[in-house]
Write a structure and sequence with these properties.
The complex is a heterodimer of chains A (447) and B (258). With 447 residues, chain A is of the alpha/beta class. Chain A is built from eleven helices and 20 strands. In chain A, strand 2 and strand 3 form a beta hairpin. Chain B has 258 residues and is an alpha/beta fold. The chains are: A alpha/beta (447), B alpha/beta (258). At the A-B interface, helix 9 and helix 10 of A face helix 2 and helix 3 of B.
Chain lengths: 447, 258
Amino acid sequence: MTITAEMMEGVTTELCREAAEHAASEGPDWLRARRLEAWDLYEATPMPTTKLETWRYTDLERKLDLDRLELADREAVPFDTVDYPEAVRTAMNEDRRGTGHVVEIDGAVVHVDLDPELAALGVVLMSLRRAVDTHGELLERHLATKAVPASDGKFQALNAALWSDGVFLYVPRGVRLEHPVRVTRWASAPGTAYFTRTLVLADRESQVSFVDEILSPNFESQTLHSSAVEMFALDGAQVQYVSLQRMGRGVFHLSQQRTLAHRDSTLDTLNVNLGASVARLDLNAQLLGPGANSDMMGLYFGDDDQHFDHSTSQDHIAPHAKSDLLYKGALDGASHAVFRGIIKVHPGAQRTDAYQTNRNLLLSGDAQAHSLPNLEIEADDVRCSHGATVGQLDEESLFYLMSRGLGLERAERLVVQGFLGEVLSRLPLGGVVEKVSRAIEEKLGHA
Amino acid sequence: MTDSPILKISGLRAKVAEEDLEILKGVDLELRAGEIHAIMGPNASGKSTLAKIVAGHPGYEVTGGSIRYRDRDLLELEPDERSRAGVFMAFQYPVEIPGVSIANFLRTALQARLDEGEELDLFDFQDRLLERMDLLDMEPAFAERPVNEGFSGGEKKRNEILQMAVLEPMLALMDETDSGLDIDALQVVASGVNKLKSERPEMAVLLITHYQRLLNFIRPDVVHVMVDGQIARTGGPEVALELEAGGYATYREAEAAV
């Protein structure tokens, strides 16, 4: 069956049931069942409202218009690299030291390359859609099951039903990748809904870093970009995930991530939000084995009427694990940031170390930040702390900088760079830190 | 031209911005290239305010009088323009700039002195910074620390002197640089100022201080005593010694008697 444009109008109406059925029309039985089940969950779950604590500051009724969105047209994708948008080629050329590279355009993977030596060692880097055929068993066990299942919420369900493609990365036991695997994503069509997924499986004692850059032009009419990221670090594995979101205005970006860190593994994340009109992050880090460690870093820098909503949770299920969260954001114009974080120490998770810090710097009188850190501790021998600040660029600091010859703009820029730089200084990934710094500088230059 | 003052303050009156509190009540002061002047005075006499107004602090409003700097109207210039024109103030309370290294800060300050499109040569800068630090007996690692973050009082003041060494001002205002320093730290800071002064004798220095002890290490040509927003006396170094012996009480009495 082929599906035509007019059949796909709207994501919420019955036509979309057909879209889900269409999506389920290919692939193995388990996947079809999972998609349709996800769709049923999506329909059965009411749209979150501001009455819910987790959506209190993001009014979907005002900020998201699902009915006007169309699904991505998978056929219109350029296959030759010369046909790639300029921004994609620039991003690809910035750092050639990657061990592998995936390009996803308009919801479909169009390019994959992987160091042949790593491929020979059993590393798998490929389109998620293709992986359904080649690595069915691994996907059946891990895709939308323990990490970002449809049952997590309405948008998780929508993504699980309608995902068009994404990235699958598997690193076998003991294999260590010296340089990051890089993903460049691009969304080009206004008024479109994109659903993409990422599944990272790091087997025992393996090591990998993954840099996910998401780009688009500015849009006149709203475009939805929904990304589900599922990451597994098995015993002793080391995984670092970096998301650099630089989409254009007019984008509603949803990123739903869960990390599962097993015994003695390290699973670090850095989420950078610079672009989009609305960016919502749901990140849940699970510490599943003793000795597991998750550093959770976040950076955001808003201007105009950008709205960033970060919802994080640190789930300490096993004893003797550590998580450390630091989210910092600078807000200019009339931008608005929300941070809502919770540390949950489950019964029996003794000797937990869990920290959570959110700091906001307001650069304008119209900018706003809401910071809501929280603790829920059901074990008695733990070390936990949380802290939140919302500060302003004070007159005395600005005068100090200006008294050394820096103009107002240059002074503000330097303060923001320093403020955000603290997060990057925690990230021991050479090329990536420079890439993120450059992106921040570029935005500062325009601000 | 050498005879025209580098700084000429005439009848300067100023108040705290957005308040009615008048702090300077007609200040006159002339400073020539190469001279070292000290302004002494009791707390709340207005001496720090004077330095801040010359540097362009936004917390004060000038209500009368004028400040000429190298034959320009200084009050017309923004704080950053004053800096680029050669005015420097060492802060009494230097501000922390988290995440910004001293090296990065100074590089940015020097870059700001170049024309649009001109790029600072980073190797030249690095050499220059190391040479300046060497002159002041500072460890190169110091420049990698974030500006004033977690610094001791002495480190903060030394950082001010380092900035002065790199930016090479024509007019240096030292706002209570001696406050909060023990005698060793004071000597280090004073020796830094003296080195810079001997390197560039044409630099004018205005020392703001409450205590005479700084003047044992940096010898002023002229000493002014400021009381209640006005210069109450101007003289040679002997004025400072008199103050050391008699305190500010005589000036206060004189005020009260008027």
